[in-house]
Amino acid sequence: MNRIKAYAASEAGGSFEPFEFDAGELGEEQVEIKVHSCGICHSDLSMRNNDWMMTDYPFVGGHEAVGEIIAAGSRVKGVEVGDQVGLGWNSGSCGHCVHCIAGYQIMCSELEQTIVNRHGGFADRVRCHWSWAIKLPESMDMLKAGPLFCGGITVFNPFYQYDVSPLARVGVIGIGGLGHLALKFADKWGCDVTAFSSNPDKAKELKAMGADRVVNSRDDAELEKVKGKLDLILSTVNVPLNWDLFIEALAPKGKLHLLGATPDPVPVGMLQVIQQKSVSATATGSPSVVAKMLEFCARHDIETTTETFPMSQINEAFEHLESGKARYRIVLENDF
User: Fold this and answer.
1) pLDDT at residue 1, as a whole number
2) Chain-centre distance of CA 315, in angstroms?
3) Domains present along the chain, CATH in parentheses
4) Which terminus of the chain is more exposed, N or C, with fewer CB under 10 A?
5) How confident is the model at residue 2 (pLDDT cuts 50, 70, 90)?
6) pTM (2 decimals)?
């Protein structure tokens, strides 16, 4: 029972191959989840390629896993065997530091990350601390739920943390795996929504997702038209842009919030932000916020737009991701 079947890459950029490992005894506060399906995030690609210089090999990725709890340690609370749950980027925290006590577990200095220094959800089973196994609403499609646990919470967290007004004017840069969910959240939050996309041909599709208007993110003249109009801009891209124009697009007290890991610094001049504008960033979200996001999705019928591959076709799925053709998140369905 302790041996877990998985797919692992043995080197940077390598293919995923069948792999088994001994998970050892289940911890007293751990649960074991039988993986139903697991989303592929761009972070999985970065980790496989060791882009962040912190990958251990063999590498078993997967941090958007959903499934059923099949075993629970003696000190597990809040969840039980038989519950359908999801697991995201984080899989454990200390529970006693000032951040954990305040409900900001993602700031815990002992935070355990699901695919860093341990094996993730590209497997038949995955483990985590009970507090990070979040129950799914009964109405939620398990094949659609996985990407919410990383891509979804990443874009939902700013709305919750900053108490965004339903009257706010919100912009979203980059309408991909994260951005398409940001559009759906902003729309159902009640906001006026501007989608910034480098592909104007997607305008009709983006409006169907909740955008009130679509602006070409590579056209400086179009960006000038929204100068001073937006209260919050969420950037989901990992490429450099004309940041000056996006900061100028903010209204007084507006916020440019970075969610994509841009390779270069974002230059900010004091005079650009003197009207109490700001540049900020967050990563994923704490368990309580994940649970609130799932409730929000269930209440408003929000689903991830996905493409599904059997887990045995994991390499084909990664090639599809790298091609940039994914619309908009890829989910691997367990076929072990």
Assistant:
1) 61
2) 21
3) 3-150+285-333 (3.90.180.10), 153-281 (3.40.50.720)
4) N
5) confident
6) 0.97
